[in-house]
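Before relying on records like the one below, remember that each one covers exactly one chain. Contacts with other chains, cofactors or solvent are not represented anywhere in the record.
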Amino acid sequence: MEIDFSLWYRVLAPRPVVIVSTVNSRGISNAAPFSFVMPCSVSPPLIEFSSSPGHHTAKNILKTGDFVVNVPGRGALDKLWKCSGNLPAGVSEIKKSGLTEEKSLKVKSPGIVECFARYECKLHGKFRTGDHITFVGRIVRAFVEDKYFKNKEFKVLQADPLMHIGGKRFGLVGKIIKVK
């Protein structure tokens, strides 16, 4: 069956979902969930995500030049969803959702305590991609909770990362298989 072009990306699901946190020029935090996200280089460490140009997240990054990619687990789902609302500029989605800000070590934007991993990023590049802006961040600090990363291996089942299917639907990993 052929599908409408407005729906093509939904088949590429589930996708990891992250919360990108930023600050505006007055230092007020902002956070929004994104599932158009992926690593794009190991050396240097680069991560990219795409945002609508009208989002506060995009506007803040263009002004401040940094952001934090926060990776949530199942326990953060309800609060993550509250961050997807359209609050007025200058109102912190982090605070409104009940999430907890954590001062970052290398960027102005805060991390989110309830997320098991955080990547502090400096803006490396940006480009217009149709109706979105793709932001590429150079990771200047990578943090993951000890219990989810042992012997250079990510304990994905224990971390229980959220996967976005579409709209209000999310999935969980559930099972690991290996190629023979």
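The CA atoms of residues 8 and 153 lie 33 Å apart.
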